[in-house]
Structure formats: C-alpha cells, structure tokens
Amino acid sequence: MAQDKRIAIYPGTFDPLTNGHVNIIRRALRLFDKVIVAVAADTGKTPLFSLNERVDMAEKVFARESDIVVEPFQGLLVDYVASRNAQTVLRGLRAVSDFEYEFQISLMNRKLRPDIETLFLIADYRWLYISSTIVKTVASLGGDVRGLVPDHVFACLRARFGFDPVGVDEPIAPLPSPALPGQPDASAPNGREQPC
Ligand code: ADP
Fold this sequence. Notes:
Blueprint: E1 7-12, H1 19-28, E2 34-40, H2 51-61, E3 68-73, H3 77-83, E4 88-93, H4 96-112, E5 117-122, H5 132-140, H6 151-160
Parallel strand pairs: 1-2, 1-4, 2-3, 4-5
Helix pairs in contact: 2-6
The chain binds adenosine-5'-diphosphate (ADP).
Adenosine-5'-diphosphate binds at residues 12-14, 18, 20-21, 24, 91-92, 94, 98, 123, 127, 130-132.
Cofactor: Mg(2+)
Domain Cytidyltransferase-like: 9-137
Subcellular location: Cytoplasm
C-alpha cells in the first residue's frame, strides 16, 4: 500500500509536554500535513504522569489544532508507524548529548523497517536547555516553569507537586520554608480539585 508521506509521527514520553516539544511539532507542520504525537506507554522510566494523563495534557494543548493528533502507543515504534500508514519518524535534537542515543535508535529502526525514515529537527535556541526532566525537577521544588511548558501543563505540574494554583500573570510566592525531604506530598495535593 502506498504510504502517506504527509504524516509525521513524533514519538516520545512527553512526561510532560514542554514548549520545546511544541516548537518541534509546529515547525514540522511546515513540512507535513499532519503530526501524530505518539505518547509512549513503554518508557523504560517511571513517569510522573500516567499514560492517560500525558495523552490528556497534550490533547488539551492541541485541542484547537486539527492537524495535530495525540495518541498513545505501545510496542515497537516502527510497527506503530506502519500501522498509521506513515513513513517518517520525527525527533528533536538539542545537543551533542542527544545525538548518540538518537543515532543508535534511528539505525535500529531502519534495520527493522528500511522504508521508514527518521527526520531530525534541531531544537530552537530558546528551548535548547529544556527537558521534561529539568522542568519536573524545578516544578517539584515550587520553581516557576511558566513559559517553558504550556499553561495547562504548568497547572498540572503545580497540582501534582501539591502547590497552589497560580494565574498566568500572578507572581509565585516563595515557599515559606525549605521543603523537607518527602514534602510536599505529591500523593495528597492539598485536597483541592485537580486540573489534570
Ligand atoms: P524520549 O523519552 O523518547 O526521549 P521525550 O519526551 O523526552 O521522549 O522527547 C521526545 C523528543 O523530543 C525527542 O526527540 C527529544 O530529543 C525531543 N526534545 C525533548 N526536549 C526538546 C526540546 N527542548 N527541544 C526540542 N526537542 C526536544
């Protein structure tokens, strides 16, 4: 069956989606008609957000963009790509440190399915230092990650780490005292209704 060259599959953990990811997705839409954000169930890491939460957050961010679709996927990426009748895996590169891993994975994927190509977009300089990991670390300590993640993701991070919600332009009050190990308790976030 002819493959649809206009679909790019952007796989990742997206735990959570950052503005670096959003930038790659939007730029890819200059080259493709549709980007499928494929949220991995099998991550090899213990994610902060469940698969459903990661999909749900990304869906909310792209709710008004019909050319961006968010889906969970499980198992071999190349099988999933083929199942979507697509030909291109999209990945982002931030630094040399990303390169070795990406290089290995893309060659393995080519060995598994030579008809599927991996396309790398270089991260925009504004998001070069952003990773989901560093965003989570800062957010877990009450730091302000607004502008680094979509507003909805910011609200989800605040809630997950048990911090009060803050408005987009509201200043974030410093923590009254240094958080003790184990606090704030992410499992009991203030008894407020959770946005995510
Ligand atoms: P994975 O766990 O598969 O690496 P991630 O969710 O961390 O998934 O990242 C998905 C893709 O987005 C990867 O190609 C990664 O290099 C890329 N990426 C992550 N952060 C950024 C960023 N700040 N700018 C551009 N690309 C990024």
